[in-house]
Amino acid sequence: MSAKPRVHILNTGVANIASVAAALERAGAETSFVEKTHEVVNADYLVFPGVGAFAAGMAWLDERGYADALRERFEHDRPTLAICLGLQLLFDESQESPGVEGLGIAPGVIERFPPEVSVPQFGWNFVDAASSSRFLTSGHAYFANSYISRAVPEGWRAAISRHGVDFVAAMERGQWLACQFHPEISGAWGQAIFDRWLRAPRSAKTGALTRRIIPCLDVRDGRVVKGVQFTGLRDAGSPVELAAEYEAQGADELVILDVSATPKGRAHQVDTIRAVRQVLSIPLTVGGGVRSVADARRLLDAGADKVGVNTAAAERPQILGELAQQFGSQCTVVSIDARRSDGNADRWEVVIRSGKENTGRNAISWAKEAADRGAGEILLTSWDRDGTRSGYDLQLLRAVTQAVDIPVIASGGAAHVDHLTDAFEAGADAVLAASIFHDGEYEVGELKEDLAEAGVEVRR
Q: Which of 29, 108, 227, 345 could in theory staple to 233 by disulfide, Cβ–Cβ 3.0 to 4.6 A?
């Protein structure tokens, strides 16, 4: 079973919060209230409800730093649902509160209904949705409002209602949906809006990045090996042959991790990368034994596109800045192996040297520091799950993805498509897997078809 969608709600403290939470839970979501600014930016799903006055709403957002966080969230096109006053606050300004600046996410001015109609508009009104809408269908919705947008803001697709004049009943752009009506109390029709918003493909029709499927090749002495937590290693084939095969199946990238334990074994690394690059035309990340800019340069010159650093970065964090300055953050990947701390279910410790040594370093804090130092991507491996086929550590994954703004690759424990879907819902930008491909249980293309059916946008 896939994990429930996790939805954060901005608790504005005025009305309709309980109704919104109940509707989301009926739709199968897990709800919680926003407690920190970074949750506004990074939450998997965010609902921004509200009733009340424009000026008070903006003051509440500004006081908590949420206004800038919402603008940043919009730039990242993360799934967001604004309701009633939430829609109005997206605009530049409102006639209700002259001189008060709105969020400026949707260009335009909120106006009061004309004097010839009853105000507030209370009750059920017809919503005429465009056939191209992602989230809306035509139907009757419950409204309670005095102010409206009479013009469709540039860049948005709108559904229209009429109360004396035509006005924007709802509007959507990318993964953002804003409703002037209250879907949470609009019966079965409104409930269906929550269902579609929660389950729409995360990047369909938006031009956003697709989710990446990345086979991993653990290589020792020029051969691919696989085991559990780097023990009991067994031969899994030629890296060159497997690299070519996985690209043909539709892999988006490839990761090669050198697990050789001896300097002699390390000598095979550059030759292996050079040979793989001859048959590979997708991005290649290489890690293992990188301790300096010179080490990274040898791998990049041999054909790597990105270089992963693990033990060296944990022992000398400055190396991340050195690599980023020399080659760019887009080439600098920090590999973080994390193990749950004894007696603490929500704390993970960074381990190094193939899990043999504890560092005492908090994995979440290290992820944030690594991003600040210049890492452009995190390869996050749950050491407890690696090779166990029990699924990714979703709690760890959520904690890291909510703490950083750079892409995170989930690693450790995948056995079937639901595990991958769960990881994407937990915030992963990409998923790493090995055994399910090496053992022939899935082909990459087959896995992508299953993911697409589950609503995950993938490259096919």
A: 227
